[in-house]
Amino acid sequence: MLTIVFVMLAEVLIFLPSIARFRVDYLQLRLEKAQIASLALLATDGVISPELESELLANAGVYNVVLRRDEVRQLILSSPVGAEIAATYDLRDPHPLELVRDALAVLVIGQDFPFRVFGNPVQDAGLLIEITLPAAPMRQAMFDYAIRILILSAMISVVTATLLFISVRHLLVLPIRRVVQHMASYAEAPEDGRRIITPTSRVAELREAEDTLESLQTQLTGSLRQKERLAQLGSAVAKVSHDLRNILTTAQLFADRIEGSADPVVARIAPKLVGSISRAVSLCESTLAFGKAEEPPPRLSRFALRPLIEEILEAEAMDGRPGLETLIDVPHGLMIRADAEQLYRVLANLMRNAMQAIDATGQGGTIEIAGGESESDWWLRVGDTGPGLPPKARDHLFTAFQGSARKGGSGLGLAIAAELVRGHGGRLELVRSDETGTEFAIHLPKSGDPGMDLAP
């Protein structure tokens, strides 16, 4: 339909000069016939019967003919006009826009009227030829021509539209439908490599889309297979960790008894044994907790931030710890909206990591916890004066089992902390980490999700 409309529009633009050209040809033909009739009269020295004169004028389709020869204007043939001449047109040097305007005027004006036309005689048979003729026959001929143009345009439009439809269907519609079918088939079983699309389109843009889709599906299938293997491996690790935790718990009970032995060698080795078993138990428990991925959505409530920080310091035995100084830069009246239990876990993890980093130096240091708010969020910062994170830990900071900064660590703490902060719609980020220390920042948005439980 669009093709038909556009072709018809183009035909309209072509029709205007065409109908003007048809009118000029029509008038030129009348001028030539009138000139021939006048020459026939001149050949008989102007002596013809009225019947022959009427026949010559009727054959030329004019009322009268005036021929100018040798600067003399002479009425050669004439017949009654019957009405006053309504218009005069000069075809000797017409402007194209004038021809279009005059042609439209003939089609628009419905009444018949005589009009005069000037032209150049053919074969230099005079200086000027002038005819007077009726408008009705010319208008009828123009209408007939317009109808033929309309019919021809409609036929061209239908044929063009049909050919274009067949071409577009073959080159675009069917290949696009094939791509859609491939996408639907692939969505049913993305792990099946046989369902990955094979690019076949000959259209450059569509072929590029098929190539991109093939690459995407190939990468996605590989990722899904890898994730499936990792899931199976994770399930096996979880089972092993569960059994290993039970075994280590029993070993821990025996190690506690050994720690009270009177043997000096046993007394010296026992604390290291207990510490190693405790770390192994902690690793198993963290692995099991991370593997469950059952963190509930945060239950938001308003509470004071500073008391929560003081509670963490007391629980982790940081206050009064030899060589460790803790600074709290949080306003007493600062109220935030968050899940207190989850935020406790996040801050405890960051503060515990900071303490362990300072302990590793053996020189003491400072942990600073700051907090505040802006128009859009609450912010918290936990910094220390430790040695900073190693490059490998910074590259995989929030990746489980890869972001640990100390030997024997699992890297689960920061991964779980980042996940809990994301559950609040916020973000946990590393602000700096160099030889002067490490600083983390937490941003919690003030705009709550309407679906969350916003306790007053």
TrEMBL record:
<dbReference type="GO" id="GO:0000155">
    <property type="term" value="F:phosphorelay sensor kinase activity"/>
</dbReference>
<keyword id="KW-0472">Membrane</keyword>
<dbReference type="InterPro" id="IPR036097">
    <property type="entry name" value="HisK_dim/P_sf"/>
</dbReference>
<keyword id="KW-0812">Transmembrane</keyword>
<dbReference type="Pfam" id="PF02518">
    <property type="entry name" value="HATPase_c"/>
</dbReference>
<feature type="transmembrane region" description="Helical">
    <location>
        <begin position="145"/>
        <end position="168"/>
    </location>
</feature>
<protein>
    <recommendedName>
        <fullName>histidine kinase</fullName>
        <ecNumber>2.7.13.3</ecNumber>
    </recommendedName>
</protein>
<dbReference type="Pfam" id="PF00512">
    <property type="entry name" value="HisKA"/>
</dbReference>
<dbReference type="InterPro" id="IPR003594">
    <property type="entry name" value="HATPase_dom"/>
</dbReference>
<keyword id="KW-0902">Two-component regulatory system</keyword>
<keyword id="KW-0418">Kinase</keyword>
<keyword id="KW-0808">Transferase</keyword>
<feature type="domain" description="Histidine kinase">
    <location>
        <begin position="239"/>
        <end position="448"/>
    </location>
</feature>
<keyword id="KW-1133">Transmembrane helix</keyword>
<dbReference type="InterPro" id="IPR003661">
    <property type="entry name" value="HisK_dim/P_dom"/>
</dbReference>
<feature type="transmembrane region" description="Helical">
    <location>
        <begin position="6"/>
        <end position="24"/>
    </location>
</feature>
<keyword id="KW-0597">Phosphoprotein</keyword>
<dbReference type="InterPro" id="IPR005467">
    <property type="entry name" value="His_kinase_dom"/>
</dbReference>
<dbReference type="InterPro" id="IPR050736">
    <property type="entry name" value="Sensor_HK_Regulatory"/>
</dbReference>
<dbReference type="InterPro" id="IPR004358">
    <property type="entry name" value="Sig_transdc_His_kin-like_C"/>
</dbReference>
<dbReference type="InterPro" id="IPR036890">
    <property type="entry name" value="HATPase_C_sf"/>
</dbReference>
